[in-house]
Amino acid sequence: MEWVEAIILIISFFLLLGIGVPIAFSIGIASQITILLTIESVPALTTLAQQMATSLDSFTLLAIPFFILAGQFMNQGGIADRLIAFAKSIFGSIPGGLAFVNIISCMLFGAISGSAVAAASAIGGFMSPMMEKEGYDRSFSAAVNISSATTGLIIPPSNILIVYSLASGGVSIGALFLAGYIPGLLMGLSLMVLASIFSIHKQFPRSERTTMSNVIKSFLSALPSLFMLILVIGGIVAGLFTATEASAISVIYAMVLSFFYKEISIGDLSDIFIETIKISSIVLFLIATSMSMSWVMSYEDLPSLINEIILGFSDNPIIIILIINTILLLIGIFMDMTPAVLIFTPIFLPIVTATGMDPLHFGIMMIMNLCIGLCTPPVGSVLFVGCSISNLKIEDVIKPLIPFFLVLIIVLLAVTFIPNLSLWLPKYLGL
To answer: 37 with 66, same domain?
Structure first.
């Protein structure tokens, strides 16, 4: 790609974002402007339209609307409430107990819903008032909610892992799901340790100790919800069904469970389906425009240009990976995860594989970077949602959020330079 086309693509994209054009349209329009510089208007228009249509012609992508629908049933079917109640029965009485409940609930809810924003709003809307009532500082509660909302995107089933599989050219979804477990749990556990330290230092109050009978009761109540994770992942690992088939099964299971809990009725289904269609349309249109930008970059040879720039700094694999980590963190601040994965995976994957990094390992590293970006100012979407839920300004949350941000960076570096944190479980189970 010539420098002029690269500059026009970048400037037009950020200019459109800056004047408030939605990101999917910004990506599509910037791609169209750039390709018009090298191809005549009619072929340019039809080519990009074909690229957008072709990018959605994928059996794998069917899993995304199904998992979104399963998440809607979870949110409205009382499943999330039971997960929170179970976590509170175990951790509520220890230092930082309600912070633990917030983190664990976000991990579980985010994993099944596939959305960090949904986790931050659903769990934060419930937990923030509860934590404030118990005597926790509101800005601390918001920082816990914001930082933990992203952990569920690493823990399967996760829509963004499916998107990475598509962008990488076919890395196994089952292997990606398994690879996300240990890093995701490490993120959650690290946040819990930090929350406990803060709670002891700040002398936040503890909840009353729960009796064993209440723990057992809440566990039995949450068990059907927890079994959903076992059903989806276990079925994929055992070879009983594909990730797409697992997503459809998760919808049926979540719907039956919601009716069993008597939290929804037949009349609620239309609203649930309409909301799913809205969210799925946004996500799939974003995927289509992102794939068109990825094609434009490839056509204009942008990957080779970026490759030359990065390798121009150093030929040391460690330095190269640190540079890519830094770039991905910056990308995560300004761009939504789905387009970021679709656009930059084809650019960075050849570079890291040349250094010897496994594509599976890189996928987890990349998504962890982008997850951290979601809770980072000035544009992080989860940051905005978390502040809105807590009725706080961003500047009120930044100071308590910094230690959580640093902990996530430490976990990211550990996952980056200890490949077995990502690769051991898939290898152990033969994927």
So the answer is: no
- Compute the Cα dihedral for 154, 333, 328, 402 and give only its sign: negative
3-state secondary structure of 2: coil
Same domain, 27 and 151: no
Question: How much is the pLDDT for 62?
Answer: 79
What's the DSSP call for residue 211? P
111 and 228 part of one domain: yes
Number of domains within the chain? 2
Q: Which residues are CB-contacts of 41 (< 8 A; sequence separation ≥ 6)?
A: none
SS (H, E, C) 70-93: HHHHHHHCCHHHHHHHHHHHHHCC
Q: Do residues 302 and 6 make contact, with C-beta atoms less than 8 angstroms apart?
A: yes
Q: Give the pLDDT confidence score for residue 61 in this predicted structure.
A: 76
Amino acid making up residue 161: L
Cα separation of 128 and 145, whole Å?
8
Ramachandran quadrant class, 96 (left: phi over 0; alpha: psi -120 to 50; beta: rest): left
Give me the percent of the chain exceeding a pLDDT of 90.
Answer: 7
CA 364 to chain centre: 11
User: What's the chain's Rg over C-alpha atoms?
Assistant: 22
pLDDT of residue 122: 67
**One domain for residues 202 and 213:** yes
CB contact set of 291 (below 8 Å; sequence gap of 6+): 51, 52, 55, 342
Alpha-carbon separation of residue 275 from 31, 69, 71, 113 (angstroms): 29, 9, 11, 13
**Residue 417: pLDDT band with limits 50, 70, 90:** very high
pLDDT for residue 1 = 47
- pLDDT tens digits, residue range 336-359? 777 888 888 888 888 888 888 899
The answer to whether position 271 is within a domain reads no
Q: Residue 415 pLDDT more than 50?
A: yes
Q: Is 426 helix (H, G, I), strand (E, B) or coil?
A: helix
Q: Domain range holding 15?
A: 1-55+285-300
The length of the chain is 431
